[in-house]
């Protein structure tokens, strides 16, 4: 059977049941406003409307309860029985019953459903319009309450971002001023970019469906209204977020990074108020590569420093870089690695600083350079004369013994 034919059959069956129900209401002497509310409830649910006493019992209220008490009880029950919060199998059914009871009471109160006398035609039309408006308002409030039930207010948001530090700042600690923007969901429209109005959708006139012609135009199919999403309520762009569904909040924080930060460390910054949100920061530390400092896997700071080979041989003082700046260090021709105590990196944040290991790389000039060769020859000659002249030096004593042995060797050869 085609979908168009099925729609016609369902329509006629529902229309017959609706007319029978209206006839029963007329026979029992129900006033015109009451009949109007009853037939509206029948059209919406397909069943007889909820009894007034049953509606008050569903909300746990006495009929003498005020409008404020009615609304408060309804919101509390919606938050309790919403299927997203309540895992009970009948949570969905209870939600429908709660909303149905609230709408029924609102329609009775706003439409003066307890009036016994019939009004004239103008008054009846006014009552019907007021009832339609109250019904739309009740639906809008129900949707808002369900949204609030699913969107629990978090005490604050945490914004995660990366921060790059130089190796010196990571070792010694530093203070940085961080600026940025935090994008969050709009609380007014709950990220939808729209707000629900207390009036029927202008496209489907509140039915939630539009008719689509089919089968030569005399049968039709129903499909959900694209403007309201099928719930029959009018939408408008959210003014708070200009229809975007999210807001952007600028922040500026001055943050102190303790000494001893490492690659991959995370620094949590307490939340502060930014407009309607509390925003905390979670800072992931990245260390920038350094031209000569290296922090090894054991947390030891190292550096390789080229030095003049003759200065190294002579035990001269040289300048070496440290995280605190340049520092003098005396060379020793018997050593290539030097340990500077307390000049390295802390083993953990806020801990004492470790040692700094400096490896020197003696560099000598090109031996083929003429100027260098001449200077070396002159240095050797000068130092040799000085060594021979000083009897306490091993080189002088060696030179004298070697000279005597050579002379005796020549004499034996001549004999």
TrEMBL record:
GO terms for molecular function: unfolded protein binding. Residues 54-110 form the J domain. Residues 108-158 are annotated as: Disordered. It holds the Pfam family DnaJ. GO terms for cellular component: cytoplasm. GO terms for biological process: DNA replication; protein refolding. Residues 122-131 have a biased composition (Low complexity). Coiled coil: none annotated. Keywords: Chaperone, DNA replication, Stress response. This is Molecular chaperone DnaJ.
